[in-house]
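Hey, quick one: can you model this chain's 3D structure?
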Amino acid sequence: GPESAELRRHLLSAALLWAQRWREGQLEEGGATRTDLLLYQQFQELLERDFATSHDAAHYADELGTTTGTLSRLLTRLTGRSTKQLIMDRVILEAARLLRFSGLSIKEIAARLGFTDQFAFSKAFKRQRGEAPLDFRERATSPAAGATP
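Sure thing. Here's the predicted structure for all 149 residues.
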């Protein structure tokens, strides 16, 4: 469906961005080790599994057997984004998909994505996307809307 296409685009753009940074030598001196890359891959898999229930960087570090500081430094080095930012990127990507393609209310989307209430969700969405969830939904579902999320 459209949501899996959007996810594939998101993952592809992350991979391309990483490859570009690798080529440009923007990674720390000596580049990323195989261990670093494995941890990054494990983080991505864990994020896909848990983003709707866990927004806390400590959860991901614990699951991966590392510290929040180590994980965040690695992710920042590889992606330019902290653990917390990557978690929110993924949560809000899903929120945008649900706003656009489902009939769920803001309250239902907030609950499904692990927010304490719809206000916390709306605040996080607006911080990330620059507009309120309802404004995004109106724009994204209007007949004149483009194909970009």
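One thing worth noting: The CA atoms of residues 5 and 78 lie 24 Å apart.
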